[in-house]
Design brief:
Elements: H1 4-9, E1 15-17, H2 26-33, E2 40-47, H3 48-53, E3 68-73, H4 77-90, E4 94-99, H5 104-108, H6 119-132, E5 137-141, H7 151-165, E6 169-173, H8 184-187, H9 195-204, E7 209-213, H10 219-225, E8 231-234, H11 236-240, H12 248-251, H13 262-268, H14 270-278, H15 283-287, H16 300-310, H17 318-329
Parallel strand pairs: 1-2, 1-8, 2-3, 3-4, 4-5, 5-6, 6-7, 7-8
Helix pairs in contact: 4-6, 6-7, 16-17
Length: about 325
């Protein structure tokens, strides 16, 4: 288990929602926070170039999202340190370095999973950020890349980044990544999961905080992994079935609360939606993250269909959401 100091520094890592490109945007995170007070939420990966040179505000988020972590993509220690400082000033709770994404675009930018082959550079990046900020700096990575997939390779990577970079928290996706020949989707499904390897890593590095990512489908599975590790990270299952998150505070964090009612969760989103609509946000940009909320509940298909067919229309407003909600509520 974690030392007392590490446990205090990483309380929310017991359950986190993975960074997912094009999915975990600020609207998604605001919605997911309605389902769990304690789970740690991650942004989509944001590149250092976008933050430093982009015209938009790539660090925007709502105060209600806390605890929230920014995932950075990059490999220039100075640029990462600069972005980490900006993020800390904006109030983010943690900075995470992406060393796990295998897409060609990410590799061409020299970040993501390809950095597993450059452990010293990753250590330099982490150290630069740790020297620049006081909030935690963590690394999300794989168990290996290509034919560099031995346990010794993983230990050498983690050991160097921990010792030279000062990283105390790693999120380990329990699959290796193929840097060529597989799409990002295939890299999430084809390389086999190896949970025992991550368990062994925790035994060999007991002073580090380790969270497991990959293939977790239920809170029961999450609890089973937590017997061996400090945290679990769930991605697509939470996104596609947000109701899973509703039991996290009670089941994973031991909070004696009643699981949120999904109908009440939807209606609690109305002030946020109305505020965003007044700023020019399209309704569908928000409700697309809510489509899976009623999975397994009578009326779920009608909810999804009505929102999918109507939320993208130019004049769509709260009335669309309320009508979709009635299709569920009247069948409960």
């Amino acid at each position: 288990m974690l030392s007392e100091t590490s446990a205090n520094a990483y309380p929310a890592y017991r359950f986190s929602v993975a960074p997912m490109l094009d999915w975990t945007d600020r609207h998604c995170r605001y919605f997911l926070r309605k389902l769990s007070r304690h789970a740690l939420l991650y942004t989509e990966m944001v590149t250092t170039g976008a933050i430093i040179h982009g015209k938009g505000d790539y660090l925007a988020y709502s105060e209600e999202e806390h605890p929230v972590a920014l995932q950075l993509g990059g490999s220039d220690p100075a640029a990462l340190a600069r972005c980490a400082r900006l993020a800390e000033a904006r109030g983010y709770d943690e900075i995470n370095l992406n060393v796990g994404c295998p897409s060609d675009r990410v590799q061409n930018g020299r970040f993501g999973a390809c950095l597993m082959g450059e452990a010293k550079l990753v250590a330099d990046c982490v150290k630069a950020m740790r020297d620049a900020v006081s909030i935690p700096v963590t690394v999300k990575t794989r168990i290996g890349i290509d034919n560099q997939d031995s346990y010794e390779f993983l230990c050498d990577f983690v050991g160097l980044v921990a010792n030279d970079g000062g990283c105390e928290m790693f999120i380990i996706h329990a699959r290796k990544a193929w840097l060529s020949g597989l799409s990002p989707k295939e890299n999430r499904e084809i390389p086999p999961l190896d949970y025992p390897r991550v368990y062994q890593l925790k035994r060999d590095f007991p002073h580090l905080a380790l969270s497991l990512n990959g293939g977790i489908k239920s809170l029961n599975e999450a609890q089973a992994h937590l017997q061996y590790l400090d945290g679990v990270m769930v991605g697509r299952e939470v996104y596609q079935n947000p109701g899973m998150l509703a039991g996290v505070d009670r089941t994973i964090f031991g909070d004696g609360v009643t699981d949120p009612d999904p109908v009440a969760v939807v209606r609690s989103m109305y002030p946020y939606i109305e505020n965003e609509l007044s700023k020019g946000t399209y309704l569908g940009h928000i409700t697309r993250h809510m489509l899976g909320l009623f999975q397994g509940i009578a009326g779920a298909r009608q909810w999804r269909r009505y929102l999918s067919e109507n939320a993208h229309k130019a004049a769509a407003d709260i009335a669309v959401v309320e009508r979709a909600l009635q299709l569920v509520a009247q069948r409960r």
